[in-house]
């Protein structure tokens, strides 16, 4: 009993550690707001699903739900490792409880098991429970049967557990045997692609929890539980302690990189440093992905509203361009967490200078990505004639949103943006112009001259605001220090 | 402020909410001095150092460092000084050599390659010169912070526990450099808990407790007959330590 109580205590402390780390990284408000947002989102989707079910068979809905759940479970396992490395850079050397076996008489496998259980409970509490709550709350409106909702809750929880256990299993294999990891991961990918090619994938036969959902055959429940336990067992069995850092040698690149950015004049030195940070921390692709991901998601949602829910809304490419601006802040936010700027405190450099450096780097990345996205979309939607306006709107709203973000949050975007006061200001400054452009875009291409001109005028007003705020950064952040 | 004074502090206070970290502190440090600031944990040493290096504003009072008020123009204040912080924090994704080069570019240091080569050799960092900051050992990080503070040949050095993390061989090396630096007309302001070092290198010492100076003078003036600096330190701060 003493052993069990000790293990429960360790898991409880690890959960506290996880909560404190995440709330310090992204802000307490955002952190606590997250499950509420998930529950509301789940409630809205559940309520709107009555229309969805008229156009999409139930089998397909289950397939979508379980695919999302297994992907989420897999990503939680990956985030456990990724989030830790960000926190380490953000706060300097951090020592998670996971490293306790280095100094205390406790077996690493036991601590890893506690860490795994903690992650499972923790992420279920902040995401799966709110999802289920949202569906349950929708019952008075949707009339779903309680027993069906509870059964669905049970199966999606199993699917999540399947995803997270597979993720931890693969992580353990990766730490110990990179080659075997490549074989297993490659095989899984091949099976999925093969099943997709043969039409099996669409039926969801690959996910036993989904088959259990559809057939209620207990054999699939047993198979699901067996897989979850087997993945968990082997994840703990195979894990190997690997705290020692492997140093990599890098040839000097700062001068060469600075020369490459010499067109940035006074900022070339600082941009060179930021660029090397991004490349060497291997965050260049996640940064780009964090921008493209929401854009693709937006395109999917709009397709969903138009094609699945058959809402009679005509979106032009200018609408997409207005929305692109909103997602721009994710890149700026990323640029602020790659490395801690504390050392600038010792050098003759001001906070506004580094804010502007990040802004310039942001413009280089975002303009390129959003322009390519809009060109592709204009061709796909046969709206090339609106491309000039879309590019103007896209680049203006992107610049405006990120300037507002930088003006209000400086170098601590994740901390400040989710302070309700700052978030309120942000919403008041960003939402109205974007909504105005979005609404005006619904009248395109029919009233191109009238509404196109109106949109151009809004963009001009935003450009004036951009110039003011860019200058204002100096005044607002001039006396700020680099150290948190 | 006279031409000879490197630092002049008049009635400086700094509070963090209800906590008064530095309380109405006044002090004058001459050029060419090695001034040691000693005190128990949380006495206000690092807060004072941050005010003098433009990292923090005082709540009250004024301070001048090499004729400039550091919090008024922190960028200008940092041009002629070198700072070694309490916690070593070089950039995570630049190598040792690249960080020194980066400092050189920001400060506009001439003949930077020769200087980088000198400091890398002087502090035995040749083997780790191409390793990223995040992969460096604590000692290497500390050596890098020292090199970054020394490389532009500042007129005044602020050192916060500069010997922590260094092995005895490199401690000796750095002490020798500091001697040469002083002979060349430099001034040092050092915060340390290693009283043996303070006793050996400081021309004057202030003991600070609860944000106030409780003793100020040369080692001889602070210590009684046969008493070491350790003894004097404990005597001046006993009340504080017993309270805690």
How would the blueprint of this fold be written?
The complex is a heterodimer of chains A (484) and B (244).
Chain A lengths: L1 H25 L1 H28 L2 H34 L16 H30 L1 H4 L3 H31 L1 H21 L9 H8 L2 H21 L15 H7 L7 H13 L3 H25 L8 H19 L15 H30 L6 H23 L3 H4 L3 H22 L6 H30 L7
Helix pairs in contact in A: 1-2, 1-4, 2-4, 3-6, 3-8, 4-6, 6-7, 6-8, 6-9, 8-9, 10-11, 11-14, 12-13, 12-14, 13-14, 13-15, 13-17, 14-15, 14-18, 15-17, 15-18, 17-18
Chain B lengths: L4 E12 L2 E12 L3 E5 L6 H8 L7 E6 L8 H4 L3 E4 L11 H12 L4 H11 L15 H13 L5 E5 L7 H16 L3 E5 L3 H7 L2 E6 L2 E6 L1 H4 L6 H15 L1
Parallel strand pairs in B: 3-7, 3-8, 5-6, 6-7
Antiparallel strand pairs in B: 1-2, 1-4, 8-9
Question: What does this molecule look like?
Answer:
The complex is a heterodimer of chains A (484) and B (244). Chain A is mostly helical and 484 residues long. Chain A has 2 domains: 2-238, no CATH class; 281-477. Chain A has 18 helices and no strands. In chain A, helix 8 (208-215) runs antiparallel to helix 9, helix 10 packs across helix 11 (268-280) and helix 17 packs antiparallel against helix 18. Chain A is globular. The model of chain A is unreliable at 86-94 (pLDDT under 50). With 244 residues, chain B is of the alpha/beta class. Chain B has 2 domains: 5-80 and 155-243, P-loop containing nucleotide triphosphate hydrolases (Rossmann fold); 88-153, no CATH class. Helix content of chain B is 37%, strand content 25%. Chain B has helices spanning 45-52, 74-77, 96-107, 112-122, 138-150, 168-183, 195-201, 219-222, 229-243; strands spanning 5-16, 19-30, 34-38, 60-65, 81-84, 156-160, 187-191, 204-209, 212-217. In chain B, helix 3 crosses helix 4. The mean pLDDT of chain B is 90. Classes of the chains: A mainly alpha (484), B alpha/beta (244). The interface between A and B is large, with 35 and 36 residues.
């Amino acid at each position: 009993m003493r052993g069990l109580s000790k293990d429960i205590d360790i898991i409880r402390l690890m959960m506290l550690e996880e909560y404190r780390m995440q709330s310090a990284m992204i802000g307490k408000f955002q952190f606590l707001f997250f499950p509420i947002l998930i529950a509301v989102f789940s409630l809205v989707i559940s309520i709107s699903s009555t229309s969805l079910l008229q156009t999409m068979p139930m089998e397909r809905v289950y397939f979508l739900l379980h695919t999302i759940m297994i992907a989420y479970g897999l990503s939680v396992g990956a985030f456990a490792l990724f989030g830790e490395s960000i926190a380490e850079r953000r706060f300097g050397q951090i020592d998670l409880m996971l490293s306790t076996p280095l100094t205390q008489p406790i077996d690493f496998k036991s601590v890893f098991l506690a860490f795994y259980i903690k992650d499972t409970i923790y992420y279920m509490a902040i995401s799966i429970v709110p999802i289920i709550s949202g569906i349950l709350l929708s019952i008075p409106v949707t009339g779903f049967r309680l027993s069906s909702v509870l059964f669905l809750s049970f199966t999606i929880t199993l699917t999540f557990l399947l995803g997270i256990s597979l993720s931890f299993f693969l992580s353990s294999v990766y730490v110990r045997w990179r080659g075997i990891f490549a074989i297993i991961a490659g095989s899984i990918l091949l099976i999925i692609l093969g099943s997709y090619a043969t039409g099996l994938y669409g039926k969801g036969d690959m996910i036993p929890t989904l088959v259990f959902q559809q057939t209620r055959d207990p054999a699939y429940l047993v198979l699901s539980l067996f897989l979850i336990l087997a993945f968990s067992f082997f994840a703990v069995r195979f894990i190997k302690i690997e705290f020692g850092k492997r140093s990599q040698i890098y040839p000097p690149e700062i001068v060469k990189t600075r020369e490459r950015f010499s067109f940035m004049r006074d900022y070339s030195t600082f941009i060179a440093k930021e660029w090397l940070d991004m490349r060497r921390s291997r965050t260049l692709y996640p940064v780009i992905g964090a921008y493209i991901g929401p854009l693709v998601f937006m395109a999917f949602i709009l397709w969903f509203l138009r094609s699945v829910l058959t809402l009679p809304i005509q979106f032009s490419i200018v609408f997409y361009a207005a929305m692109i601006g909103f997602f721009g802040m994710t890149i700026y936010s990323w640029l602020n967490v790659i490395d801690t700027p504390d050392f600038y405190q010792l050098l003759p450099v001001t906070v506004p200078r580094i804010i502007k450096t990040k802004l310039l780097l942001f413009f280089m990345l975002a303009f390129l990505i959003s322009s390519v996205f809009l060109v592709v979309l204009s061709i796909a939607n046969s709206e090339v004639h609106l491309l000039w306006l879309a590019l103007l709107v896209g680049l203006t709203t992107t610049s405006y949103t990120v300037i507002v973000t930088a003006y209000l949050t400086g170098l601590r975007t994740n901390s400040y943006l989710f302070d309700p006061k700052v978030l309120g200001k942000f919403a008041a400054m960003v939402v109205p112009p974007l909504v105005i452009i979005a609404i005006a875009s619904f009248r395109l291409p029919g009233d191109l001259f009238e509404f196109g001109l109106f949109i151009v005028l809004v963009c001009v007003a935003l450009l004036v605001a951009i110039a003011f705020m860019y200058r204002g950064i100096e005044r607002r952040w001039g006396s700020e220090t680099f150290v948190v | 402020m006279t031409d000879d004074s490197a630092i002049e502090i008049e009635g400086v206070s700094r509070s963090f909410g209800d906590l008064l970290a530095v309380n109405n502190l006044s002090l004058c440090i001459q050029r060419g001095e090695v001034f040691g600031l000693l005190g128990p944990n949380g006495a206000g040493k690092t807060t004072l150092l941050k005010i003098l290096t433009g990292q923090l504003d005082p709540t009250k009072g004024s301070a001048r460092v090499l004729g400039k008020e550091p919090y008024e123009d922190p960028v200008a204040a940092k041009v002629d000084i070198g700072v070694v912080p309490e916690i070593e924090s070089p950039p995570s994704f630049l190598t040792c050599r690249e960080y020194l080069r980066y400092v050189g570019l920001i400060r506009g240091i001439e003949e930077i390659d020769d200087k980088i080569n000198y400091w890398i050799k002087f502090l035995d960092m040749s083997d780790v010169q191409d390793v990223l900051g995040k992969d460096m050992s604590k000692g290497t990080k500390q050596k890098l912070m020292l090199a970054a503070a020394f490389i532009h040949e500042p007129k005044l050095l602020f050192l916060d526990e500069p010997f922590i993390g260094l092995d005895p061989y490199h401690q000796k090396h750095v002490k020798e450099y500091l001697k040469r630096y002083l002979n060349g007309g430099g001034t040092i302001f050092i915060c340390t808990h290693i009283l043996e070092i303070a006793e050996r290198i400081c021309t004057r010492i202030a003991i600070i407790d609860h944000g106030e100076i409780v003793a100020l003078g040369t080692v001889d003036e602070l210590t009684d007959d046969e008493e070491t600096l350790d003894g004097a330190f404990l005597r001046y701060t006993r009340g504080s330590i017993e309270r805690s």
